[in-house]
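Issue: ligand-bound run for zinc ion - logging full I/O for the record.

Environment: standard queue, default settings, no custom constraints.

Inputs:
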Amino acid sequence: MPPNIKYPPDSDLRRLLRFEPDSGSIWLGDQRMVLMHTTALAALRQDLMNSVGADHARRILTRMGYASGLSDAEYAIRQRPNDSMESQFLVGPQLHMLEGAARVTPVKLSFDVATGKFEGEFRWDHSWEAYAHQQKFGVVDQPACWVLLGYASGYTSAFMGKLILFKETRCGACGDDHCLIVGKPIEEWSDGEAHRMYFTDDSLMKKMEALQSQVEALKSSIEPEQPGGKLIGKSSAFRQAYALMEKAAKTQVTVLLTGETGVGKERFARALHELSPRSSAPFVAVNCAALPAELIEAELFGVEKGAYTGAHAARAGRFERAHGGTLLLDEVGDLPLPAQAKLLRVLQEGEVERVGAEVTRQVNVRLVAATNVDLEKAVREGRFRQDLWYRLNVYPICLPPLRERLADVAPLANAMLARFCSLHDKRVTGFAERAMQALEQHAWPGNVRELENLVERGVILACQGGMIEVEHLFPHLTQTAQTGVDASGQLAELPSAQDDELSARILDSGSSLDDVEARVLNHAVTRAGGNLSQAARLLGLSRAQLAYRQKRSQERGQAAPQATV
Ligand SMILES: [Zn+2]
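Outputs:
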């Protein structure tokens, strides 16, 4: 040991160590210890390396040592309260020796807790860890005393109140005859940030789960879709609609899907197609509201060359393209009346006539119509043909809005999360609890589509490897706000549960507001030991205000304690 650094006697630390074989325990002060075989620790190390790889094994073992170092730092001040700072700090190396880690010799030590300056160099002889590592893996290239280094970093960081990183510049595991460690604040190491990962809690399981769900999402995007497999829902409202659809799928019946915008009518129609005997034939979807009125007939029924200016070539319509399969006419309520007449004819005759054609063509198409408007009302108002409505309304299925199937929000959101993670090449581990709660309490005017938009936004805003927080979904909700549904069913900030609970208890007690006030005043005065000025401060009142309120409640017959000051 250099002459300037001397260990104080360690009798104070030896006294901490107590073996109690009768009770089957070993103690270091008030902390329970255990004697373990280094061969067992070596076996654990080998298993860790094999199962999670060297980096994660190193991280786990470093954190284990770090935890020990943090625990031992308690004894520094407790055991040597009146000693010099140096003597207090040396509790760490001395305990480390007592615990059998290695023989620790300070080479250099200078620090100042107030300014956060730290520079330390220690020599380790007979490191148990270098020995154990070498036994399992032979002589290695990289230092391997991870538990010991974790201890040095944990102890010193706790002592200094900031992260001090120790690194080995020599190690017995690399064939040196001793280890040498150097410690300084993490920001003073040029590669300090790269070492921070060894101290952080990084769940490998969560990473694996996230990867797993990404693999699932990727798989489902490349594999042929399972019949109806893309539909997610366990709520009874959803299951009812699904059961109706399943029954219709096996038949040729024309299906009318109704429901609000964004409830997933196209997805439903696709599932119907996939469950039907037509699943190997095309599924064609047309959004009638998205097509200009003058083109809609050509789009649906096809066009012959030269039928109108711009019709340079003959073209099959969507009906023909869906031959043998299923045609979805979305927003069918927006179809202009002439197109409605033509559609009715196709449904009646089973044949289409291209615009400008002399002949008709046979088509075999299962029609699914979808609408978010009340077609019956449109019929009454003359905007929709009654005979067409009868044709379409043979087998109506009403898809429930999301707010009536809130039980499906979580499974839907999780499936979307996996899909968007793979789409945006992002690793997001899930929804924070508060975020999921906010999703489950939202009113969802835009239904599943709105949920989809929010989840995609959340995936983009969340940190790589992190979770989707409530702010990523609903930016207007601050971190501290309690989110809930207000009387109008909207997501809003609510008083905290604690406030609610207190108010509820007061109401349940049957006390009047005056009673409550008198009791709170009395309690404040008692707590202030009768000092009225102090009681007034506790209540956020002036002394005069307190006196006035006390007098008033006394007049009402409530007893107020007499002030002693
Ligand atoms: Zn070493």
